[in-house]
């Protein structure tokens, strides 16, 4: 008797890709953590001069939570990359001959501790690494490390010899070609550089992932591609446009100091009693408007309103024609209805349209200007044109 197939009830697990451990998201923080470990141990060693240096290292290792370094990575491929990259940062970056001898010893202790504290469980079975990849020239260099520990570093010599002997006896070193041949895989770390959406690296980075001279992360518009632009491309372009607008506004913003207005002794006495008016930050076009363009606009608008006033007759239903005055009313009503709709949509999202300038801006002033349209038709009782009269004080009750 055979059972019918049924779906599995086990829950899917989250798998970390191996490329995460070769990316800047992992490499840069780990470099900082290793440097912090070296600095903390070095400070304790110099201050206390311990007789048991490795016991001090274990205390420091536990106190700054390096015991949590073996976090849960169950996938064998990802775990293999995690272990190899971590040991490589201890070995190939902090144990080279150009490093200070005390730093090299701390890196050796860290490498040995990390290798020997790999969890070995059967449920679930975790992948472990038995060998440390090391270039032949670096292997020769660290074998002579105990001889460089002199003066106040002499207590470290015996412990360094023991750790190296234990690693050699366990055949932990896997010899690679010389460092000049770039034997590691990947060749450089980090291999993948994480960049936030909307930003690009303007220049390459060096082998340690540091930016070269003159490099910076700046917004850039990507080259035009074939086909419909992606959401990422649209976001980059929008950020670039916003950045350019901000720069233009910053360049064209000025500060105006309004005059106090004191022209006689009595006014000057009042001026001393009250603080001077605060400076006003405004745009250059607000303080120095383009007069020629403004005059041309006013002239053409005046001619338009004169023509509308001359053609103020009623509509002719037989011909389907609408008088100019009625067309102006309809245009004002359409603009006002559109602004009300925008204000309603903004209110639904918790936003506000206009209103920064009080009664001089916003929907309320537009409503008043539209309401003044019949009164201003003769050009005497108020600004003409309704919304077209905003420049002349429409909606403010200015005669």
Automatic annotation (TrEMBL):
Basic residues bias spans: 224-236
Region (Disordered): 206-236
InterPro entries xref list: SNAPC1 (IPR019188)
Protein name: Uncharacterized protein
């Amino acid at each position: 008797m055979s059972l019918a197939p049924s779906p599995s009830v086990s829950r899917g697990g989250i798998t970390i890709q191996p490329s995460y451990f070769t990316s800047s998201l992992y490499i840069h923080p780990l470099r900082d953590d290793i440097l912090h470990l070296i600095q903390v141990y070095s400070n304790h060693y110099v201050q206390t001069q311990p007789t048991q240096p490795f016991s001090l290292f274990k205390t420091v290792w536990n106190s700054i939570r390096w015991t949590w370094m073996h976090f849960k990575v169950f996938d064998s491929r990802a775990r293999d990359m995690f272990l190899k990259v971590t040991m490589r940062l201890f070995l190939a970056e902090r144990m080279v001959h150009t490093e200070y001898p005390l730093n090299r010893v701390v890196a050796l202790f860290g490498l040995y501790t990390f290798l020997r504290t790999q969890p070995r469980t059967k449920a679930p079975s975790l992948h472990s690494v038995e060998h440390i990849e090391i270039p032949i020239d670096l292997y020769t260099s660290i074998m002579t490390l105990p001889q460089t520990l002199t003066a106040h570093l002499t207590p470290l010599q015996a412990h360094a010899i023991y750790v190296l002997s234990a690693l050699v006896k366990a055949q932990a070193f896997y010899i690679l070609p010389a460092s000049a041949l770039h034997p590691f895989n990947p060749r450089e770390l980090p291999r993948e550089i994480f960049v936030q959406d909307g930003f690009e690296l303007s220049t390459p980075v060096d082998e340690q992932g540091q930016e070269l001279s003159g490099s910076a992360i700046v917004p850039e518009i990507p080259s035009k591609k074939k086909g419909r632009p992606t959401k990422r491309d649209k976001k980059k372009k929008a950020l670039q446009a916003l950045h350019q607008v901000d720069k233009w506004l910053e360049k064209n913003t000025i500060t105006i100091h309004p005059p106090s207005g004191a022209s006689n002794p009595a006014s000057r006495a009042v001026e001393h009693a009250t603080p001077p008016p605060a400076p006003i930050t405004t745009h250059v076009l607000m303080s120095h408007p383009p007069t020629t363009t403004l005059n041309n606009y006013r002239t053409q608008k005046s001619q338009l309103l004169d023509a509308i006033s001359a053609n103020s007759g009623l509509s002719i239903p037989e011909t389907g024609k609408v008088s100019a005055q009625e067309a102006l009313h309809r245009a004002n009503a359409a603009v006002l209805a559109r602004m009300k709709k925008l204000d309603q949509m903004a209110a639904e999202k918790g936003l506000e349209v206009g209103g920064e300038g009080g009664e001089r801006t916003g929907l309320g002033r537009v409503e008043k200007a539209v309401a003044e349209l019949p009164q201003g038709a003769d050009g005497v009782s108020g600004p003409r044109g309704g919304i077209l009269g905003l420049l002349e004080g429409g909606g403010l009750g200015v005669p």
